[in-house]
Design a protein that fits this description.
AAA_6; Helicase, Ruva Protein, domain 3; mainly alpha; 2 domains; elongated; ATP binding; single chain; P-loop_NTPase; 124 residues; dynein light intermediate chain binding; 49% helix
C-alpha cells in the first residue's frame, strides 16, 4: 500500500486510516491533523460535568427519597477520596465509578426495602 491515500481532493496519510491520529492525549504516537483537515473541523468547548447533580438525578431514578442530601454526602466522599488518596492509575474516583456505586445502592435498596435510604447508601 502506498504511503498516502487520496480521499476526494484531500491527501490523507495512511496512519489516519489506521486510527492512530485520533487517540487520546496520553497516546505516545499521536500526530497533528494536517491543515487541509483542520479547516474542516470547528473548535468546541467542553465543560466538567456537574457530578453532584448527576448523583442527585441517579439517586432519584433509583427510588431514593432524600436525594439532595445523599448526593451531597456521596459526592463529598468521592471528591475527598480523589484528593487525598493515592494518585495511582488503578484507583478510579471519576463520574463512571460514582454512578456505578449509586446504581449498586439502588439495586441494594430494591433488594432490601426495609432499610432506610441512609443505611443503603452507607452500605454501598
Amino acid at each position: 500500500m502506498s504511503s498516502k491515500s487520496v480521499l476526494e481532493h484531500f491527501t490523507v496519510p495512511d496512519d489516519f486510516q489506521n486510527g492512530n491520529t485520533f487517540k487520546g492525549k496520553c497516546y505516545a504516537g499521536r500526530t497533528e491533523l494536517p491543515d487541509n483537515l483542520k479547516s474542516m473541523f470547528r473548535p468546541i468547548a467542553m465543560v466538567t460535568p456537574d457530578s453532584m447533580l448527576i448523583s442527585e438525578i441517579t439517586l432519584f431514578g433509583e427510588g431514593f427519597g432524600n436525594c439532595k442530601a445523599l448526593a451531597k454526602k456521596t459526592y463529598t466522599l468521592y471528591s475527598l477520596a480523589e484528593q487525598q488518596l493515592s494518585k495511582q492509575d488503578h484507583y478510579d474516583f471519576g463520574l463512571r465509578a460514582l454512578v456505578s456505586v449509586l446504581r449498586y445502592a439502588g439495586k441494594k435498596k430494591r433488594n432490601s426495602p426495609n432499610l432506610s435510604d441512609e443505611e443503603v447508601n452507607k452500605f454501598s
